Amino acid sequence: MFLHNKMDFERFIALRYFWAARKKFFSALLTVISISGIAVGVAALIITISVMNGFQTDIKEKILSLSPHITIYSDSEIPQEALKMDGVLNTSKILYGQMILRKGKNATGVAIKGIIPQDEKKIISLEKILKNKNIGVLKEKTVFLGIELSKNLMVSAGDEVILVSPFGQTSAFGIIPRMEKFTVSDIFDSGMYEYDSSLVYMNFSDANRLFGKESIRGLEIKTDNIFDADKTASAIKNKLGFGYTVKSWSEMNKNLFSALKLEKFVMFLILTLIIIVATFNIISLLLVTTVEKIHSIGVLKAIGTQQLSIMKIFLNLGFIIGTIGTAAGTMLGILISFILKKYKFINLPADVYYIDKLPVKIVFSDIILIIFVSIIITLLAAIYPAWKASRIEPCEAIRYE
């Protein structure tokens, strides 16, 4: 009961000091600056971390919508019998190559992916990003183009384009490139500029005819658990042996996700410095309060208040300021993050950031961590002024008065 009353006493005095600061202009100004500094730092940290989480989640979802769980590359046919193991659900043969796509006077280099439509839709969600939502229209002599590529070449569904293969026939004049006409059967929009501006889907039989032995052969695999893809890929690699390259979706995008994770950590550290800088205002405020309340501290000491209790009073005062600033910053940060997430009014250059809208994902575990770090920093900032106040002697306080 005594300890409980003692804690109430220390908190009560701290609250009295806090409210009394409003009556003096300089102290009130320092209080507002201290709370505002903490609030701005916390809000900036919440918004930035939410945007980084959004980037990580959005890019991962977009990559997975067009990437198989595991891909095997080889110069020769891949024995599918060797893939009959636990974890492997579906497989689909693919061919990769590069060609020149031309429409009138416009031409550009593109990456060609030859697929078997009915097998491919069991691996990735290609139909979801097609304008007409039907992968079955990819017949022979037809192609799917990305939306950015179609804009650059001024091509729409139903138009004819010319594909130029560098692997042609050898003649007395050298190699004659092979050119064939194809019809654009549909346009896809993945939301990722890298895919939408350079990738072309065509029927497997067409790709096999155009590239022949010069293509990169592959086999896409869908597993029963995307998070076990690395483990399954390792088992496949051991089973196939030398001559085959086996990559899981996380391995193929390892650098991108590592960079995003590092960037999130660095941004957390940098913006935490804003909170640390803001706590210098708390130190100044508590030191000024110590000078203003020196007589009050002397009286408390004279009636038997221990140094530890005086120190706790000022720690409580720092905690009150830090909590108000953190609470205000948290509400502001969540509000702005929610507005950014709902209305998506900030556009991004898609060729730089992979995506065209600023993504936001509010993760409450991150917000709790930010609140915890902010309050700990403010408490650490209050230690020195609290210790200084606890060292004041009653006689010194009376003489000062």
Strand residue content? 15-25%
What class would the helix/strand composition place it in? alpha+beta
Straight-line distance between termini: 35 Å
Give the overall shape, derived from the CA principal axes: elongated
Gyration radius, rounded: 33 Å
Work out the helicity level: 55-70%
Poorly predicted residue ranges: none
Give the helices and strands as they follow along the chain. HHEEEHHEHEEHEHEHEHHHHHHH
Strands of the widest sheet, in order across it, are 2-3-7-4-6-5
Record field, number of beta strands: 9
Mean pLDDT across all amino acids: 85
Number of domains: 2
Biggest sheet character: 6 strands, mixed, barrel
Secondary structure tally, helices: 15
What does this 3D model show about the protein?
- This protein is α+β, with helices and mostly antiparallel strands and 401 residues long.
- The protein has two domains: 2-62 and 256-400, no CATH class; 70-248, no CATH class.
- Helices cover 57% and strands 20% of the residues.
- It has helices at residues 2-20, 25-66, 117-120, 126-129, 147-153, 193-196, 204-211, 229-240, 249-252, 254-292, 294-302, 307-343, 350-353, 364-390, 394-400, and strands at residues 70-74, 88-103, 106-115, 142-146, 160-171, 174-188, 199-203, 216-223, 245-248.
- It has a six-stranded mixed beta barrel with strand order 2-3-7-4-6-5.
- A hairpin with a 2-residue loop joins strand 5 (160-171) and strand 6 (174-188).
- Helix 12 runs antiparallel to helix 14 (364-390).
- The model has no long low-confidence stretch (mean pLDDT 85).
Question: Could you list some keywords that capture this structure?
Answer:
401 residues, alpha+beta, 2 domains, 6-stranded mixed beta barrel, 15 helices
